[in-house]
Amino acid sequence: MSKKFENVALTDKVFAFDALLSDEERGWQQKAREFAQTQIAPTVEEDFDAKYFRTELIPLVAATGFLGMHLNGYGCAGASAVSYGLVCHEIEAVDSAWRTFVSVQGSLAMSAIYKFGSEEQKEEWLPRMARGEKLGCFGLTEPHGGSDPGNMKTVAVRSGDNWVINGGKRWIGLASVADICIVWAMTDDGVRGFIVETNSPGFTATPIDGKLSMRNSVQCDIDMVNVTVPDSMMLPKAKGLSGPFSCLNEARYGIIWGAMGAARGCLDAAIGRSMSREVFGKPIGGYQLTQAKLADMMVEYEKGMLLSLHIGRQKDAGMLTFAQISVGKLNSVREALNIARECRTILGGDGVTNEFPVMRHMANLESVRTYEGTDEVHQLVIGRELTDLNAFGA
């Protein structure tokens, strides 16, 4: 299968989505498409098989300006929400793991410092993180809790001018390669966030092995035993779960666009194969059943893209709500998985091999479906908005 850079995706043939974008937005889109196709695509299948996170790409990603691109100042591009969404879309059209990297660094770790940090913390960390010189991770999820961060077991206790943190986190992206971790811990004053340098005594990040998804990225268990951080490393503007939830919503926004990118990657592969593979004397794309499958998938893909764009415009206008984010995340990932599975049928037996990206996308999307809120969590967010009744824990 050719890995050359294609400026136009096969899915672009039906609906002129680019006509809805500004010149600036198209510029970010094309930059991300070229980067993903030329820098990530050539080795992605090999890295997935080898469980290898290609850290040598990080300076190249940083050089594009993608890291924290939606933030203003501190060496960040200050791009629009739609531009950032398009970047997530193009990167995940090649690979979910690399969109996750951009998301963990920019939407989680950098956003936490940007939203809730002191001016000194922002000046110290954000420019270096935008340049890729320092990597961050986001320590919220715990082994026992998953989707219930209110039941947090990690605790931080004040000791003079310091804080002593004890506890554990799980499924923390980038933790074993990160320089800092935004750790959320329970204190006598509620949940607070801390910038913890990962070389601190008592801080241990262990990559989780045995993954059948997101194999070319790292997710870790974190153990913290009497990890001591100065009071100056607490995020002063974050108190309670609204802090980490605000960052999660930044990451969820990127997923809305990114999952549709994975769907596009699968569709492009299926469309191309339908025109090149012949059975019973003609390409399989010439049969009605195949065209019906492609048409149905294309309709869902374009609906997902229009929803993503609407949500992006709402975010740029400062009008985006939590429930709208949940609608987008639930729809994009669910439909992307449906599209991936149907594309696999068009590829036949070869669809389960790494000659095509579909099974890799399918496996990765199972992780995307779970992190930053499961389907069930987002259904309950939407249900609460519709009924004014809280069904969490019911």
Q: Which shape, going by the Cα principal axes?
A: globular
Biggest sheet strand line-up: 4-5-9-8
Mean pLDDT: 95
| Beta-strand percentage range | 15-25%
State the total count of DSSP E strands.
11
Distance linking N and C termini: 49 Å
Stretches with pLDDT under 50, minimum 5 residues: none
- Determine Rg (CA atoms, Å): 21 Å
In helices, the fraction of residues equals 40-55%
Structural class: alpha+beta
* Helix-strand string: HHEEHHHEEEEEEEHEEHHHH
Q: How many DSSP helices?
A: 10
The profile of the biggest β sheet is:
4 strands, antiparallel
Protein described:
The structure is a single chain. The chain has 394 residues and is an alpha+beta fold. Helices cover 50% and strands 16% of the residues. The chain contains ten helices and eleven strands. A hairpin with a 2-residue loop joins strand 6 (180-187) and strand 7. It is globular.
